[in-house]
Design goal:
Blueprint (H helix, E strand, L loop, with lengths): L1 E3 L2 E3 L1 H65 L3 E2 L1 H10 L3 E2 L2 E2 L49 H4 L2 E2 L24 E2 L15 E6 L5 E11 L18 E13 L23 E4 L20 E2 L5 E11 L20 E10 L1 H4 L9 E8 L3
Length: about 375
Amino acid sequence: MKFNRLGPISSWDRSQVKWFTLIEMLVSITIFAIIIIMAFDSMSNIGILRTMVSSRLDLNNELYSATEKFVDLIKTGGDIDYEEYWNRRVVGTNTSSGHYALFSGFGNYGSGGSLSNYGDGLYSCVSGMGISMGTGGCMNASGAAQRYGQYRQQFIDYNSNANNDLWDEDNNDNVRWDDDDEDLGMGPSVFTGGVSTKELYLIKKWLKSERTYFRWVFKLDENRPSGATCDATGTGTGCLGNIQILKLVWKDLGLSHTGNTSITSTGRYDGIIDTWECHPDYNCTGTNNLPAGEDAEWVNVFPEWIHVKNVDFYLYPEKDFRYAWKESSDSIILNSYIRIRLTLGLAWEKRKKIKGPASDMTITTTVNLSR
């Protein structure tokens, strides 16, 4: 029998010591294995997370890059096109597929005309005889397209003395250029300040005047999951939105909008803007290369993998301060600018390639248009 300091060690005691040591080793190995497995799992998750974060950063950079290009197009588009906003106010602002439903003609058509059936020229504003001038203007033929230049007429009274001379002061069969003509320096607003519009109209008046228009559109995403829908307001998981652009250039072709000298066109080559046709980079389907409001004429600004969920344009001031020189309100006598609120997401084609939910990005920016 062997002894230790505490006394003799029996065979039963020796077996107990060996059994306790084996359990201890098994527990240690198990704990070690769990730690190793957790470490490898953590490293794997870190790699996946790193890939996800990297992908999202790349997507955000691409989204910001596309948005910068959109803002640059606005910065180079010129000033607020009050004439077209006046035209749109008269025609109506009901929307369809994101953009306005009714075609305004972009100032090529007057009251009583539609498409190739051109309407009258500008309607002259006269006071008296039951017509009231002032800040309300003299809008005529509500719901009909207005010629380019009609908004300017809202600030001019061609019968300021309000007498009953049928507004022709010098009896030359022309109500304009008489002694009773007066530039009131006051007129109507074309939109309500602080309220968003769904389309942006800009005009650049250089040697060759040019208009730049933007509109929001949406459709069903071809790569949407089964059952995903898109309603009439652009709401739903199956929508794919975009911003579209259309550019027009000025031509002095008269009220018939044709350069064919064999066809009579009142006002041709008189130096007054009367015709807006498509920029050479755009394919207009109307007569004489005029815009017809067709979807094929507009060009997408954003790539197809971006889903423009919504856009709001807030324009200031609400009337042209160059015409409203008599106004004293601080909300009118200021440089024109625009606030843009844009919500972007990913089309389903791109969403399928990333793991996890695709978050939206909302961008709000202000652009000074009177630079």
